[in-house]
Structure formats: structure tokens, C-alpha cells
Amino acid sequence: MAVRDGERTKGAILTAAEDLFARQGFDGTSMQQIGEAAGVARSTPAYFFRSKEALYDEVLARVVARAEEALAAGRHQGEERSPDDAAASYVNALVDLLSRDQNLLCLVQRESLGDGNRVAPFLGRLAEEAVEVFTPAAEAAGISPHRLVLDMVALSWYPLAHEHTLLPALGMKPRKPAFLDEQKRHLADLLHALTRGGGRSPEHVPR
Questions:
Q1: Comparing C-alpha atoms, which of 196, 166, 181, 194 is closest to residue 99?
Q2: Segment 85-103 mean pLDDT
Q3: Contacts of 47 (CB under 8 A, 6+ apart)
Q4: Is the pTM above the cut of 0.85?
Q5: Exposed e or buried b for every residue in 24-59, given b needs 16+ CB within 10 A?
Q6: Among 166, 28, 19, which Cα is nearest to 102's?
């Protein structure tokens, strides 16, 4: 029973810390705030994680693991499809991930304002995997897979990262299902244009 209680307490601390770090940043969050949000004594987070830095590292590791699992599923769904459908399936998984995991988005954005070292390995793995997925379609079209990855990631990322800045000025709500569906179609059309020299994508975008 004690082990299960300990695991529940640790999970509650991680969840509270993730939300606070995402909203307030590392420097703006205290261990006392985390304990209060988790519903535990102020000393409990330090008991389980030793320091705020160690807790932050565990939060990032958990967020990254979620992201990698989601993108791996998107890659799996693209297997045995045409090269550009496989790329579109991966992009769809990225859009879905960013739309539902706001903490991931916020934490990576905050890291990017510093040196970004804590998330650099994850982004490096993401880039390597995406280049591998995109290379067949890109090489068939005679374009750079690295450039294609940059374009697709940027266009997937920007609307959700700026849901409170540029998007309201354009009258867009990027977390609404209608916007997300249209964004996936738009990115599939763009992929199609870049890799096949124009035209529109199939009506049903691979999920």
C-alpha cells in the first residue's frame, strides 16, 4: 500500500510541476507552489526529487516521452503508404500532438528562449526521424528533405504557439476541430504541391 501511495504522490507532484513550469517557467515556479498544487506538504517535492532542477528534468523527460510515443504512432500509421501520404500522416500526428499537449508546446517555447539544451536532444531525434520519413517523397521530387521538414514543422508549430498573438488577429482559433482539420488538409496540399509539382491532395488525409 505504501509503495502505491508513494507512486500516486510522485505522480501528483509531476503533474502539478508540469502545469506550473509550463505556465510560469522554471524561475517563476517554487517547490512550495508545486507542493501546494499537488496537495502535499511543502517539503514533499524535495523528498521525492531532491531539487527543483531534478524535478524539472523529470517533467521534461515525461513530456518528451509522450511526444515521442505520439509521433511514433503517426509514423506507424504511414507505413506501407505512398511516400507523400506517409509524410502527411506524420505531419497529422505532429499537429494532433501540439493541439492536445499544450504543456509540451509551452515548455519547448520557454526552453527556446534560453539555450534550449534540455530539449535539444529531443528536437534532434524529432528532426532525424522526420527527415527519414520525408526523404522518399523529397528525393523523388528533387528537393531537400531537411528543408521540407523545416517547412512542415514550422507550419504545424506556429499557429498553436501563437494562439494568443497573431491567430486572434486573423480571426482563427487553432485548437478548434474545424481549424485543425483544415490545417491538416492545407499541409497535405502543400506537401502534394512540393513533392508532385502541383494539384490537390486526396479528399481523405491519412490519419
A1: 181
A2: 95
A3: none
A4: yes
A5: ebbeebebebbbebbebeeebbbebbeebeebbebb
A6: 19
